[in-house]
Amino acid sequence: MWAYIVRRLLATIPVAGVVAVFVFSLLHLAPGDPAAVIAGSYAMPKDVEQIREKLGLDEPIYIQFGKWMWQVAHGDLGDSIFSEVPVTRLIAQRVEPTLCLAAASIIVAIVMAVPMGVLAACKAGTWIDYLVMVFAVLGFSVPVFVIGYVLIYGFSVHAHFFPVQGFVSIREGVKPFLRSITLPSVALGVIYAALIARITRASLLDVLAEDYIRTAHAKGLSSGVVITRHALKNASVPIVTIVGVGIALLIGGVVVTESVFNIPGLGRLVVDSVLARDYPVIQGIIMMFSGIYLVINLLVDISYTFLDPRIQY
Amino acid sequence: MYQKLRKTFVVWACLLAICVFGFTAGQVAAETVIRARLDAGLKQLDPIWTTSYTVRGHGYMVYDTLFGLDENFNVQPQMVDTYSVSEDGMAYTFTLREGLKWHDGTPVTSKDCVASIKRWGARDGMGQKLMEAADKLEVVNDKTFRLTLKQPFGLVLASFAKITSNVPFMMKEEHALTDPHEQVKEVIGSGPFKFVKEEFQPGVKAVYVKNEDYVPRDEPASNTAGGKIPRVDRVEFDWIPDPTTAANALIAGEIDYMWTPQTDHIPMLRKAEGVTVEIHDDLGLQTVLRINHQQPPFDNPKARQAILWATNQETNLRAAAGNDPELFKVNPSMYPPGSPYACDAGSKPLMEQNFEKAKQLLKEAGYKGETIVVLHCTDDYIISNQTLVTGQNLRKAGLKVDMQAMDWATLVSRRAVRKPASEGGWHIFQTWFNGPDFLNPLEHMAVGAACEDAWFGWPCDQKIEELRTAFAQEPDLEKQKAIARKVQERAFEVVTYVPLGTIYQPVAYRSDHLEGVVKSPVSIFWNAVKK
After folding, report:
1. If you ran DSSP here, which 8-state letter would residue B145 be given?
2. If contacts are CB pairs under 8 Å, which of residues 212-241 in chain A contact chain B?
3. Is A85 on the interface with B (CB under 8 A)?
4. What gap in Å lies between CA B501 and CA A138, rounded to an integer?
5. Which residues make beta-bridge pairs with B291?
6. A-chain residues within 8 Å CB-CB of B456?
7. CA distances from A7 to A13, A294, B264 (A)
8. Average pLDDT for B518-522
9. Which of B472, B415, B409 is nearest to B444 (CA)?
10. ∠ CA B474-B476-B480 to the nearest 5 degrees?
11. Average pLDDT, stretch A280-296?
């Protein structure tokens, strides 16, 4: 097992290299000029040229790439072209809201989806099953910003139960933190709940058709015990897989949610940086996200060994 | 037994977590706080390095200026106590007010001002003209400095009072000696508020606290002139990127002030209890259609004049500002309506849309059906909507149009391309300026025609440049008006750009707990009181 983990971790190095080349090339080949954005809309052409020169953006691409890779190899993701704040500090400023939002969204999704999926599987073919599936289709189809606006309109603007926007760190109090994270995590969680509910239902239906489930019923165990002690555990591998996929998809989801609810997280940082062509920040965050994806995939793979002892590496 | 112990442990762990986190004291809030949402998130901090309006707003919080403009756009002294002008108008001597200090407690001296003017003069268009006319800028003593001209320049005070980017903010000498094309990283000003570096999150939040040592003027606050009294303890610039969320946040009272809400939110904000929507910028936004003078067919003035005849300002304005007549104004002038130099000289083709005339001019210009590339910026609703109208009007005039959608960052890099449209160049793009940017022919960069040195589009006309130089040298207001009129006439003949009219963007704020907000084309928070 440890050898497997070490092999997977070592494999991240060439992956990171490929990601670095890819993201650097895409950014510099795409249209847009950070020097022009820095100078402002009303700067004269010669000012833009001089700023470009000062920032080293007029150097050949391979030299810019070499300098950046050298920095990254030394753990330095560079400085924002605009604010001249180190990228690592910008990420550190923004990581808490994103982690909290992602974690809360997944918790909301799992708490909603697994019971719904179980219910749908147990009541397969009934109106309950159809209702759950309709929810699944709607939840996955409705854009997160639409859900967000509806929640804001209902629960914030009219009911005043939750704030319209903003993020309060848990260090400033549990209640304000929970109030600030509830609506965004529900907006985002609903989408993944839909996905997880469908998979839970499908996976559980397969397991419920097995002989040992019939045996468990025949032994006099209640339905609840059969499902929680026997069926769900065996159905959990696909569920865990989809949760892992969901976490990866969350990266895209948090971007929109953070903008709608004004949460100053990494998603917004990426969007702002892309619009401004802040190359070091974009590159740094994408490298970080790719690392996170790799770790999540590794953790999901490792979790299989706990859920199903037959799986070994 | 084990299960009971496990449950007990879980309960106590939760209680402990609540004790640790639930009663954690947050930051002690300042007594009075204004939370404002401006036009963008603040990322840069040097208002000389960039022309960004957001950074200009930051500059007005922490820096001060030698002169300001009052509500009638008259120049008034600000940091300057007294000044004198020699009889021939070639020497200006300025003496600073007593008690001016930097935020680190050191006194403001004339050395700081001289260095700041030089740095600003290296970047700003009007400053560059001033420096060209200047012979010497020297320190006389700690409080006094002198500007000696080598050629007449009638806009010395107006230059120091300008509120358009780049504003001539005064900085400490050590910062002002920074290369003007590099960013000053430390924010130490002498303005009414101090920047709180520890709480700055680029693109998210900027925080300012009252400068207790600020010595305001005695006059009442008026635009960027008068007494800049900081009446709240703290001002936060909270950037909320989604305009709908921002409007809802204002309605819910989570923010106090919103600079230029989106047009379609204005009716909702007007109905909201406790919210006031009013126009603070009487000069409005001046919307602009810019033509590439270097690329055919628009290297021919007749083809450019055809665009004038094909344009209808009202249609363009309604596309961006909606149908509320308070929010837009057809403007026959290249200067903002109601401003000192506004006139209708030369504007007939612009005011009388005539597609047949446009087609005729295109024919005379030798237009043979080449594709006209229009850069369509989609992430600014004013520019986006107006460009769509332009595209339609150009087609009606007989032009073959290729509308290329892109974001603003792509547009600003694309407009710098001087190659033919087929090689990545362009023919037309649109934008807008704050009214003060167009106050006079010298500041007005869309009127400038300095060929390769002109603003993007590169119009080339010696007569316009001679007139602008004459304007700069003329101290008499009536004579300045006459020159400004001639500049406009010539600019319409050459079609340096097509004015698309004026849009008035109101501010929205919680009048139930905010009062005394100073009316200005820039966002100003001195004088404002939180009830």
Report:
1. E
2. none
3. yes
4. 45
5. B428
6. 45
7. 11, 12, 56
8. 93
9. B472
10. 65
11. 86
Interface size between A and B, measured as CB pairs under 8 A? 155
Nearest-by-CA chain B residue for A30: B410
Q: Mean pLDDT, chain B, as a whole number?
A: 93
Cis peptide before B248 (omega within 30 of 0): no
Rounded to an integer, what distance in angstroms lies between the CA atom of residue B55 and that of residue B21? 37
What's the whole-number mean pLDDT along residues B216-235? 96
Neighbours of B39 (CB within 10 A): 14
Q: Which of A41, A80, A275 to mutate to test the interface with B (most CBs of B within 10 A)?
A: A41
**Cβ-contact A182, A194 below 8 angstroms:** no
What is this structure's pTM? 0.86
* Chain centroid offset of residue A308 CA: 26
**Cis-peptide, bond into residue B297, ω within 30° of zero:** yes
Our CA-based measurement puts residue B88 at a distance from the nearest CA of chain A, in whole angstroms, of: 33
Q: What is the pLDDT of residues B76-104, one digit of tens each?
A: 999 999 999 999 999 999 999 999 999 99
Pairing of strands B400-406, B529-530: unpaired
Report all structural domains of chain A as residue ranges with CATH numbers, in order of start. Answer: 11-73 (no CATH), 95-307 (1.10.3720.10)
From residue A51, alpha-carbon distances to A189, B78, B171, B186, B392 in Å are 44, 31, 21, 19, 37
- DSSP strand pairing (B64-65 vs B275-278): unpaired
Whether the predicted pLDDT of B15 surpasses 60: no
- SS percent in chain B: helix, strand, coil, step 5: 35, 20, 45
Residue B248 has its nearest CB partner, among A40, A164, A276, at A164
- Give the integer Cα–Cα distance in Å for B497 and B494: 8
Q: How many CB atoms lie within 10 A of CB A27?
A: 19
Taken in order B194, B199, B203, B206, is the CA torsion positive or negative? negative
Determine the pLDDT at residue B270: 96
From the list B248, B229, B251, B252, the residue with the least C-alpha distance to B240 is B248
Cα gap B249→B204, rounded to integer Å: 15
What does the pLDDT read at residue A31? 81
Q: Are B178 and B119 in contact (CB under 8 A)?
A: yes
DSSP-assigned letter for residue B265: G
Task: Give B-chain residues touching A275 at CB under 8 angstroms.
Answer: 379, 407-409
- Provide the shortest C-alpha distance from residue A182 to chain B (in Å): 16
Are residues B468 and B487 in contact, defined by beta-carbon separation less than 8 angstroms?
yes
Confidence of residue B23 (pLDDT cuts 50, 70, 90): very low
**For chain A, how far is it from start to end, CA to CA, in angstroms?**
6
pLDDT at B24 over 60: no
B100, B113 in Cβ contact below 8 A?
no
Vertex A109: Cα angle to A103 and A113 (nearest 5): 150
d(CA B119, CA B169): 10
A166 CB neighbours in chain B (<8 A) are: 238, 249, 254
Of B246, B409, B416, the CB nearest to A48: B416
One-letter amino acid at A59 equals E
Cα B449 from Cα B459, distance rounded (Å): 5
List helix spans (H) across B377-476: 381-396, 408-414, 462-473
Looking at the predicted structure, is the pLDDT value of residue B12 above 70?
no
Distance CA B256, CA B279 (A): 16
Task: Please state, for a pLDDT cut of 90, what percent of chain B lies above it.
Answer: 88
Q: What tokens appear for B155 in the block? A: 């806009």
pLDDT-based confidence at residue A305 (cuts at 50, 70, 90): confident
Q: Give the C-alpha separation, B332 to B343, whole Å.
A: 7
The four Cα atoms B373, B363, B332, B481 give a dihedral, to 10 degrees, of 100
Rounded-to-integer distance, Cα B288 and Cα B501, Å: 8
What are the distances in angstroms from CA B173 to CA A50, A215, B188, B468? 23, 87, 11, 32
